[in-house]
Design brief:
5 strands; two-stranded parallel sheet; D-Maltodextrin-Binding Protein, domain 2; alpha/beta; 3-stranded parallel beta sheet; 8 helices
């Protein structure tokens, strides 16, 4: 019983969205299995909202999502503890003149006056909502869908 309480044996359910399956998930799973060989790890693939629901309803002890829904940024969910495990750069493809003006890095606010191409709604990465959210935070609703 002591092994179960210490997390050295038993079962853990991990819910994840498909975007994490080719990102940090394989590395994290390999490390966890090496450190906890007696723990049965159950993995559940779902949408981002499905992952969060699985954790809220306790069907999963842990959830891993590529990008949390933008709504959580404005009003954190009291039933979830969020932690950033990985950061990735957002790459902007700019016309030559605009790229020369900004150099190697561009602050998003300085690009807000320009139209953005936005991934389609429901795309696996979750970038659609996040890109729109970034624009509306700057007061800009001029976005174009890919």
């Amino acid at each position: 019983m002591r092994h179960l309480g210490e997390g050295r044996s038993g079962r853990v359910a991990l819910a994840f969205d498909s975007a994490t399956a080719w990102g940090p998930l394989p590395r994290l799973l390999a490390r966890y299995r090496a450190e906890h060989p007696a723990v049965l790890l159950e993995v559940l693939e779902d949408t981002t909202d499905g992952v969060l629901d699985a954790v809220r309803s306790r069907r999963a002890e842990l959830g891993l999502v590529h990008l949390p829904p933008p709504a959580l940024a404005g009003a954190p969910d009291p039933h979830l503890d969020l932690a950033i495990t990985t950061r990735e750069p957002l790459i902007a493809a700019l016309p030559a003149a605009l790229a020369a003006e900004h150099g190697d890095r561009a602050d998003l606010a300085s690009l807000a006056e320009h139209p953005f191409l936005v991934p389609p709604r429901g795309s696996r990465s979750g970038l659609h909502a996040h890109t729109l959210n970034l624009g509306t935070a700057q007061g800009d609703r001029r976005r174009r869908r890919l």
